What does this fold into?
Amino acid sequence: MEQAEIGLIGLGTMGSNLALNIAEKGHRIAVFNRTTSRTDAFKANAGELSDRIVPCHSLQELAAAIRPPRPVIIMVLAGTPVDEQIAQLREVLSANDIIIDAGNANFRDTIRRFKELESTGLTFIGMGVSGGEEGARHGPSIMVGGTEESYNRVEKVLTAISAKYKGEACSAWLGTDGAGHFVKTIHNGIEYADMQMIAEIYGVLRDGLGLNPKEIAPVFDTWNTGRLNSYLIEITAKVLNADDPKTGKPVVEIILDRAGQKGTGKWSVIEAQQLGIPATAIEAAVAARVLSSLKTEREAAEKAYGDLGLGRISGDKDALLADLELALFAGKVAAYAQGFAVMSGASQQFGWDLPMPTIAKIWRAGCIIRSQFLDTIAEAFSAEDNVANLLMTPAFIAMMKEAHPALRRVVARAAEAGLPVPALSSALAYFDAYRQGRGTSNLIQAQRDFFGAHGFERIDAEGAFHGPWGSNG
Ligand code: NDP
It folds into this structure.
């Protein structure tokens, strides 16, 4: 029987769709899943692609079914299951074979696995895949970490299965070991911020202006034709328009306001903190999901505080909608600037030399945060070398100069009406702090010196100094 070109382990949501995508692009693929009935069902339901799928009931069978050197994609639950699969694969693979972990691994695990496999003759690639089920099936965004040579060996198939933006493949080699999974993690962090800010604007429209889902949906639909054009805005309109078959009500109204998370948002925040790079909009978004999960406490607090008499947002509706659109855009600009700044910091810290314009380019299609705006980011990075923060590029300065007044008005009015907009207000505070040449940390330095003799720098002389605190210090 003709051997397969590639193998895949894990036929869950992502793995099964990725395998069909690979088969559809003309590649024969051997597949294995821990629960073997799933493997058989997958083959049986693969329709006209079935001929290119080789179902395997053991890893020995999988290895035998693939032509060496064998590329094998692992698409299972991140964490220990990946280590288990790698350990078992080591028993059946041989030198030059390539193990590709395509799940949402913590990039620190990827660095460890990369090192562990270095001496075995096997090659390891840590690959971030974004786009959910639909992306995996028809073209995801693919972020690859490993040696450049190993990427070259799988580039053809990855290019074939990836999303395309105006003909350009949304797949790229980004750096060694954990680079791909790190970039995927920050992609998800930005995604958290994007989604949270959209939800905050929805909250202002719902609770501030008193609009129902059917009235809000066209607002997002209209915004999707302008500067906010993106997949997340598009699906928000669709979500708001959908009805629950059971009750006939808008489905969004019967969904519990408690959001889940698997960890990539939290990892983004932890890594940003480790690197000492502020990512406040992402932090606010992660914290908002945590707060959302405290449903019982929130309900008790609502009762405890009662009606604070804050009222709704009033005024000219068209002007308010224009402000909300621009405010969301300004928040997005700040959040993306933060996400890319974190990647810049990590690039230096881990010696990856991350190609920022390429990252922006491979996010333009296939992934969850795909948007027209990423094209602007790619241009901003391409126009200048060594961009430390996107907020310092001419394009971003122009955008923020135009959009910040609306963000200010929306945050202020939401605060007055008692509507939480944590990510938007964090984005605004970050912007204001970032552009403040003389901040307020002089006072913090004085306080630190007062109670802990930590010393401070002066504006008029070099060196470390102490204040005249006397016996109070
Ligand atoms: P699913 O829950 O749909 O599938 C999980 C897969 O992992 C199944 O094939 C399951 O096998 C296998 N698995 C779980 N535990 C083990 C184990 N201990 N040993 C062997 N196999 C195991 O998950 P997804 O397809 O959604 O996710 C897979 C990976 O892709 C995760 O890392 C996820 O974070 C990532 N990802 C998911 C996205 C999404 O939108 N869903 C988007 C991008 C990345 P079995 O059938 O036997 O249970």
Residues 317-350 form the longest helix (34 residues). Residues 442-472 form a domain with the Single alpha-helices involved in coiled-coils or other helix-helix interfaces fold (CATH 1.20.5.320). Residues 10-15, 33-35, 38, 75-78, 81, 84-85, 103-104, 129-130, 132, 262 surround NDP (CB under 6 Å). The mean pLDDT is 97.
